[in-house]
Amino acid sequence: MTSKTIAQIRNDAAASLSPQRQQQWEQFLTPMPVAEQAVSLFTLTDEPVRILDLGSGSGILSAVTAKQSARGSSVVAIEQDADLARASASSLRQVCDNVEVINKSVFDVLLDARFDRVILNPPYKKISPTVIATSSGGVKVTNLYTAFLVMAIQALDEGGECVAIIPRSWMNGDYFKDFRKWMLNECCLDALAVYGSRQEHFKDMGILQEIMLVKVSKRPQTKKVIVYADATPAEPLEQQSHEPVALKALLMGSDRIVRIQQQDPRLSEFKTMADQGLWVSTGKLVWFRNRDVLSNVEEPDGHPLYWSDNQNGMVTVHPVKCDREQWVTDKADARNVVLPAGSYCLVNRFSSKEQRHRIYASYLHSNVEFVADNKLNYVHQGTSRQTVPLGDKEARGLTLWLSSSIVDEWYRQVSGSTQVNATDLRQMPCPSKTQLASLADSLPIDNTVSQSRIDETIGRLFSWVQAS
Ligand SMILES: C[S@@+](CC[C@H](N)C(=O)[O-])C[C@H]1O[C@@H](n2cnc3c(N)ncnc32)[C@H](O)[C@@H]1O
Hints:
Elements: H1 3-15, H2 19-25, H3 32-40, E1 50-54, H4 60-67, E2 74-78, H5 82-95, E3 98-102, E4 115-120, E5 126-134, E6 137-143, H6 144-154, E7 156-167, H7 177-186, E8 188-195, E9 211-217, E10 224-231, E11 243-246, H8 247-250, E12 251-252, E13 257-258, E14 271-272, E15 279-282, E16 294-295, E17 303-306, E18 311-312, E19 315-316, E20 327-328, E21 338-339, E22 342-348, E23 361-366, E24 370-372, E25 376-380, H9 392-402, H10 405-414, H11 422-426, E26 429-430, H12 433-442, H13 451-467
Helix pairs in contact: 1-4, 1-5, 3-4, 4-5, 9-12
The structure holds S-adenosylmethionine.
GO molecular function: nucleic acid binding; rRNA (adenine-N6,N6-)-dimethyltransferase activity; site-specific DNA-methyltransferase (adenine-specific) activity
Keywords: Methyltransferase, S-adenosyl-L-methionine, Transferase
Enzyme class: transferase
């Protein structure tokens, strides 16, 4: 039988999903071109292989895997939806004689580490943090897809390979730190393929997440990882541009953030922001829990309150005319939200797709204690427990640094999301405090300074950095 039949079973299954169950169990079925690309990442072998498919849906992924595998191969597919489990069985019987479809939740099936090929496009939902026990200790997961992936990797036999279709979110951020560390210790990262456009691949399923393919294998880590930085489902992966990248160049910092592109060599001289003694915290005032302290007027012993509305280009202005209160009353003193007077760099935690920059930084100097809204990050030189303002020149230099194009490009590579989180910022390459002060001496913090002047000045300082 041809793979068209498998595709047809998938399309029929997709068309007859119950909308309610589709949402509940995240039944977003992989289209044939993406399935073929995922399977093409497996190493071809003449030996029969034992294949496992977790959350198999219509069975498309394991069926395409079985189709390209040697005679005598076998498939175990686990799917909790009875209709889809039946669809899996009919797809798989077209291509394989030894098929077991288990109509259960993957979390209710005990799997031995005996599989040579594990393939999955799991549900992506957030879950409350759960620790999964593994042979190398517990691993904390916060999404169903990482929970599935931990199970998939544990089911691999020595030398076995796993390909997963998952979102990009695991590559950065605090929530996935534990998972990243576990996965990178447990197996070899072989290949990453990141789809360039959001809608293209799951068009008929309405998926808008940034999705990628990850291939890992149960063998010692090799030095290079094959990276497809801008994949498209339109043509076979092997015909698309890819390069072997040193794993070292993909991983960043102790949190093991994974980047898809190699770091711009101009940035490789710099330590991370955290290593330079700069700490990023999130504004402490959650307004809707503190409505009673907000004030439209300045009251004796009150404090200025900064929102993203107060960011105006590279400067921070206070007060501004907007529909948000510009002060808090002295009641705020008892709420652990007031920050010491001094110089800081504020970074908006949210950006929109339309904004030219993902990172929007502004310099703040306050002669009095103040409060920052929770939608702002602020950079200081203290710790997570204690806020210590920056030197004034450092705050200005850092604002210029964070407003540069090179930093914005770096951030886009690290994070697939429009949110700018403190954890990612802390891992950002950053000049030393002395260098930041020199940058502040070279340019004023002034909204008449153009982007090209910022970039040129930083470019000059880079060569100065390399020459020193
Ligand atoms: C994103 S869909 C992908 C289906 C299929 N792997 C594919 O690529 O087309 C995820 C599948 O996992 C199934 N599923 C969700 N939670 C599950 C669980 N706990 N155990 C087994 N299957 C599950 C859903 O019913 C759905 O078919």
